[in-house]
Amino acid sequence: MMKNLHFRDNIENFLYDKDNTITIYDNYLHIFNYLRLEKINNTELIVILNDKKIIINGDKFTLNKMTKNELLIKGIIKKAEFFYE
Amino acid sequence: MNSYIWVSIKNDNYYKLIYKLNNIDINILDSKILDNKLIIKINYSDYKRIKKYLISYKISIYSYSNIKNKINIIKHNYVYFIGSLLAIIILLFLNSIIVKIDIKTNNKEVKEVINEELIKYNIKPLSLKKKHKTIELIVNKIINNNEEIIEWLEIKYDGLIMIVNVIEKVNEDEIIKHDYCNLVAKKDGKILSMNVYDGTILKNINDYVKKDDVILSGDILLNDELKGNVCANGKVYGEVWYKVSLNIPLKEEYKEYTNKERINFNIKINDNKYKLLRSRLNKFTIEEENIYKLNDFEINLVHEKEYKLNERILTEEEAYNKGIRLANEKIKLTMNEDEEILFQKVLKKQANNSTMYLDIFIVAKMNIGKVVVLNYESNSFEDNN
């Protein structure tokens, strides 16, 4: 019974969130739990996540915040594409 | 505690730099772009890593952003901070001690008594200042202990000096009383008003008196018989006449300011002034502005205003008015507040090319009474008792 409730996994997931979150609001793109930044320039941004790759097209991309887990980019976002590996 | 700093990185390619920063796992908490510089807020340990890996970039600390790094600033300028701290401590210490005790009395006995009393309460030069309430208690105790000689006592601080104001108790036996005196005229004049406090009136209002004439007598007479003596006292105002002769030069010098002004400083120590900078103006007037004062030590800001002396010829009217003004000023120097000029008239006016001669007659209302103390021995009065 205990095994079915996944207590350990739930607590671990609560304390150490491994889920990816991608948020787009106003002129900001916020990505949580990314693996690495593959490419960044004025019009294109490629970010690698656990199971997918995101390609964002737009204009005037600038970096606001970049930590091990989080990425916050400001710019005009025109298109977002997801590629599952 | 994490210590964050703002780091400036000069770059030609902004995106390439970000990519590199991401590759070396730098945590950027905030960023902004300034010209061709990327300003990023990072951890201090990351700064070291950037310096290590991004050798080709020009990297510098833009600003510190938390207390720990502000402490770093203090560490780099510790001499200045320690100096300031010491100066404040010394100032506070100096402000809390008494350098000198100034007892405001001429009576040596009272001075010694107060000094002894103050030492009893541990108040002496180079001792710590007492609180206001303690001082009040000490003052009361000193007055109570010395009721026979001290009427009133006040202790206050003026900077580092303790000032003791004291009023001595006056022994009534020591009060000098004049038992026998006359009030005489100290100038020639005509009596205008009299306020008689004591004595026999010998002169009346509108009487003309000469210098040393007795106005109020100390003799008490009854039917021409001397019954006793008093000290004649009162206020007698009389009309006094003056004649003032003046020579007014028609040529007058006056100052014309040139709008040139220089700033200087002077230090004043015990009424001696020392100028800090050499004055570069020829003729100037000064205006002082105090900027620091501690007891007898002062630092003043001095405004030196240049002027040149010009000459002008006075008109007859201007010279005349100047003469009247000077004559008035001359008479007023000898007058008190309750005395005044009643009338003035120019008796003679004579002008030539360079001067104006004036004879001015002035009538003033002045106190003409003067108390003259008399001795019983030198008087013919016989004591009836």
Which regions of chain A are unreliable across 5 or more consecutive residues at pLDDT < 50? none
Placed side by side, the strands forming the largest sheet of chain A appear as 1-2-6-5-4-3
Instruction: Tell me the major beta sheet of chain A.
Output: 6 strands, antiparallel
Strand content of chain A: over 45%
Described by its quaternary structure, the protein is heterodimer
Structural class of chain B: alpha+beta
Number of strands of chain A: 6
Main structural class of chain A: alpha+beta
Spans of at least 5 consecutive residues with low confidence of chain B: 380-385
Biggest interchain interface, per-side counts: A-B, 14 and 14 residues
Average residue pLDDT of chain B: 85
Q: What's the gyration radius of chain A in Å? A: 15 Å
Count of separate DSSP helical elements of chain B? 7
Helix content of chain A: 10-25%
